[in-house]
Amino acid sequence: MTAFLLSVHVLAAIVAIGPVSVAASMFPPAARRALAAPDDSRAVGTVRLLLRICRVYAVVGVVVPVFGLATAKNMGVLGDMWLIVSMALTALAALLLVAFVLPRQTAIAESLEQRSTEDGGGGPGDVAVAAAPAVTREATVRLAMLTGVFNLLWAVVTVLMIVRPGSTTGV
């Protein structure tokens, strides 16, 4: 049973966390391209697609810690320090994604969509254009930094899961 749980845990991490990490990393440069080319609807479409990937796979990613905990329970390692640190870092990564990365991606995507829609139909003096939240290069750089921290947390968790410092169990 442990081998099955571990297999599902690892596969879920690859299938769910991998796409979130890649799409979240691609989002800031894609947003900068869309910002630089306001008439390019494909650039805004790319930003929307990357946001959708991040949202969907973030939800699917819930499977990873669920099967991880089940695996740890079966192995009898729930109290091991490497696992406790891994769980804390996983929770921190999830919090960073949900509280900072996804909301900022959403705000940037909505602003780019609104600007793209209004640029096509309104003039420069249009009141709605002035009310649109500004997307700046600096906002995308801050998002890239947060995404980098998110990815770094997952890299540390992955290393801890493989090395398992202090562990005496074998799988």
What do you see in this structure?
- This protein has 171 residues and is an all-alpha fold.
- The chain is built from six helices and no strands.
- The chain has helices at residues 2-36, 41-60, 63-75, 81-121, 127-131, 137-163.
- Helix 1 (2-36) runs parallel beside helix 4 and helix 2 (41-60) runs antiparallel to helix 4 (81-121).
- The longest helix is centred in the middle third of the chain and has 41 residues, at 81-121.
- Mean pLDDT is 89; it is low at 121-132.
How are the secondary structure elements laid out?
Blueprint: H1 2-36, H2 41-60, H3 63-75, H4 81-121, H5 127-131, H6 137-163
Helix pairs in contact: 1-2, 1-3, 1-4, 1-6, 2-4, 4-6
Task: Give a concise summary.
By secondary structure, this protein is mainly α. Helices cover 82% and strands 0% of the residues.
Write out key terms for the chains shown:
171 residues; mainly alpha; 6 helices
Task: Estimate percent helicity.
Answer: over 70%
Largest sheet: none
Distance between the termini: 11 Å
Tell how many strands the DSSP assignment holds: 0
Number of helices: 6
Q: What is the overall silhouette?
A: elongated
Instruction: Enumerate the spans where pLDDT stays under 50 for 5 or more consecutive residues.
Output: 121-132
